């Protein structure tokens, strides 16, 4: 009995110890003392992502335009346009080009204006010997290649306005008829540059930096047939010497010209249109018969310093004297013919002065229009007073 009781007690103790072992779980590690704890990692401060600043001008020049569709002409440069109904023309204008493409030999009319071209490579023009018309306005050309110019024997019209030329180009084709060089930086005309240009009829040099020292009596030698010369908007103080005697139209406005030498315009028997607006011409610097020219039809003297109306030829038809300092007009003194009486006002109109348009606004005149002025210029159709 005792033995059985002991065995039962031993079995109970074993069971109790098994249960206790299953209930026991591993405990957490004891916390470290405050002095031994690691410092907490700081939370990084938020910052916006750094962006690369945009340039003021992303590129110096805009990209060239993409090539157009294939042309019916196999030799047509892809960056240009060759109209099917105008096979002798090549349009490469306003396409942001940096270089001149290879010009096909069939081209007579070449349009390259409004690009960024700075030179004319010989390679581009090696086959273009039949060119007659070249427009290079509004580019960045500083000089012309002599080898290119010398092979363009058929060139008649050359447009180089609004470029960066500092002097009139040399070695220009001898058959040239129109040369347009306005809005450059030209301050020099090389000696003999026009000697072989006897076919030139139009020379445009307005809006450059030409001064009195640039011109001498031989500057325009060779221009035997020049009809239009534009020297407006330069820095002239005197009328240049040696102008071509054949000139019909002469533009000298927007300079600083103060006086006109005696008989200066007598050297131009064909002069029909003369423009001298925006200068410094006064009565003192104007000889009486300066504009007494038999072929002169239009005379512009606006925005000067005149105080009296100049003497004119009976054949003059348009006279601009606006914005001067004219205070009084004596029709008797300025009339190029004898005044008629009121009774004869409608007679003999064939021999009366031919003036039809007269502009006098912007002066110090007061109405009414002087009667003797109207009695003299009986064909006047419009007077701006």
Automatic annotation (TrEMBL):
Family: Belongs to the small leucine-rich proteoglycan (SLRP) family. SLRP class II subfamily.
Lineage of source species: Eukaryota, Metazoa, Chordata, Craniata, Vertebrata
Residue ranges with Basic residues bias: 22-31
InterPro entries, alphabetized: Leu-rich_rpt, Leu-rich_rpt_typical-subtyp, LRR_dom_sf, LRRNT, SLRP
GO annotations of cellular component type: extracellular exosome
Chief place where the protein resides: secreted
Originating species: Mauremys mutica (yellowpond turtle)
Biased composition (Pro residues): 60-69
Keywords, comma-separated and alphabetical: Disulfide bond, Extracellular matrix, Glycoprotein, Leucine-rich repeat, Proteoglycan, Repeat, Secreted, Signal
Glycoprotein among keywords: yes
GO molecular function: heparin binding
Location of the region described as Disordered in the Swiss-Prot/TrEMBL record: 22-69
Location of this chain's protein in the cell: Secreted, Extracellular space, Extracellular matrix
LRRNT domain: residues covered: 75-109
Gene3D superfamilies, per the entry: Ribonuclease Inhibitor
UniProt name for this protein: Keratocan
Position of the signal peptide: 1-21
Function: Plays an important role in generating and maintaining a transparent matrix within the corneal stroma.
Pfam families registered for this protein in UniProt: LRR_6 (PF13516), LRR_8 (PF13855), LRRNT (PF01462)
């Amino acid at each position: 009995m005792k033995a059985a009781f002991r065995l039962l007690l031993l079995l109970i103790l074993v069971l109790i110890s098994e249960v206790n072992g299953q209930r026991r779980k591993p405990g957490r590690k004891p916390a470290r003392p405050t002095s031994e704890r690691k410092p907490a990692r700081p939370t990084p401060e938020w910052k916006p992502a750094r962006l690369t600043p945009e340039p003021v001008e992303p590129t110096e020049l805009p990209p060239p335009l993409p090539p157009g569709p294939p042309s019916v002409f196999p030799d047509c440069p892809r960056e240009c346009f060759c109209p099917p109904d105008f096979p002798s023309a090549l349009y490469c204008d306003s396409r942001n080009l940096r270089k001149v493409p290879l010009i096909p030999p069939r081209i007579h009319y070449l349009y390259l204006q409004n690009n960024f071209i700075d030179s004319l490579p010989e390679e581009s023009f090696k086959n273009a010997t039949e060119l007659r018309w070249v427009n290079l306005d509004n580019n960045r050309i500083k000089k012309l290649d002599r080898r290119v110019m010398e092979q363009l024997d058929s060139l008649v019209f050359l447009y180089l306005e609004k470029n960066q030329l500092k002097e009139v180009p040399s070695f220009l084709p001898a058959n040239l008829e129109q040369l347009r060089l306005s809005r450059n930086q030209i301050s020099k005309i090389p000696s003999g540059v026009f000697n072989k240009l006897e076919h030139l009829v139009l020379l445009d040099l307005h809006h450059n930096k030409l001064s009195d020292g640039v011109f001498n009596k031989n500057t325009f030698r060779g221009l035997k047939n020049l009809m239009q010369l534009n020297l407006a908007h330069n820095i002239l103080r005197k009328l240049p010497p040696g102008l071509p005697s054949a000139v019909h139209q002469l533009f000298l406005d927007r300079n600083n010209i103060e006086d006109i030498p005696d008989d200066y315009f007598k050297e131009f028997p064909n002069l029909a249109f003369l423009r001298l607006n925006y200068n410094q011409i006064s009565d003192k610097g104007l000889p009486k018969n300066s504009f007494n020219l038999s072929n002169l039809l239009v005379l512009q003297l606006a925005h000067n310093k005149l105080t009296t109306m100049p003497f004119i030829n009976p054949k003059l038809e348009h006279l601009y004297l606006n914005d001067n300092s004219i205070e009084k007009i004596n029709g008797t003194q300025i009339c190029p013919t004898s005044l008629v009486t009121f009774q004869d006002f409608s007679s003999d109109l064939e021999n009366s002065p031919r003036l039809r348009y007269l502009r006098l606004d912007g002066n110090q005149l007061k109405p009414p229009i002087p009667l003797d002025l109207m009695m003299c210029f009986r064909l006047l159709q419009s007077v701006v007073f």
